[in-house]
């Protein structure tokens, strides 16, 4: 029986992926590393602890930490005030609450970014039962830690939870945690990259419109 919905934030509820790409590009450039935006996009959805070594194999721990810090500062300085929720984001969380589900935000973002999303961008603290960020775990997505912790906070088994995310790394992390995923295309990934999901929708607006025909209300049939 489905009891909890674990929501990714960036690219799923908040239109932020492009801004993260730009912040990462500038952080890398300042450190003397040039990457095409498309190369960085392919890694979006991972936390900095996994994104940086994916692009710079063999990078030292101290340099990686400086890059991670630079990205966070650039993102906050240039993009925090430009973030907007995707249409239907709050309504979908409300619909899940109305259906009786525990609602959890589970992000690879820092705790500071998550709080900004929760309070200032989405304004959904009243609809969220629990939340977890990269600050709560030892390894960010695609490690399963984020979703394992989120399910534990929701006091549900993996079989009783469902992830909604926008990247292959949400799907990988959820799968390794034993949790199924509904994917949305709003993060800019192709369907073949999201093929591990049990269903794919254009965005949260479409998922909300098709709620009653989606795995959110028919989880028994979707398994």
TrEMBL record:
Species annotation: Sphingomonas arvum
Lineage, opening ranks: Bacteria, Pseudomonadati, Pseudomonadota, Alphaproteobacteria, Sphingomonadales
Molecular-function annotations in GO: hydrolase activity
InterPro entries (UniProt xref): HAD-like_hydrolase_sf, HAD-like_sf, HAD-SF_hydro_IA, HAD_sf, PGP-like_dom2
UniProt keywords, alphabetically: Hydrolase
Top-level taxon: Bacteria
Protein name per the record: HAD family hydrolase
SUPFAM superfamilies per record: HAD-like (SSF56784)
PANTHER family the record matches: BLL8046 PROTEIN, PHOSPHOGLYCOLATE PHOSPHATASE
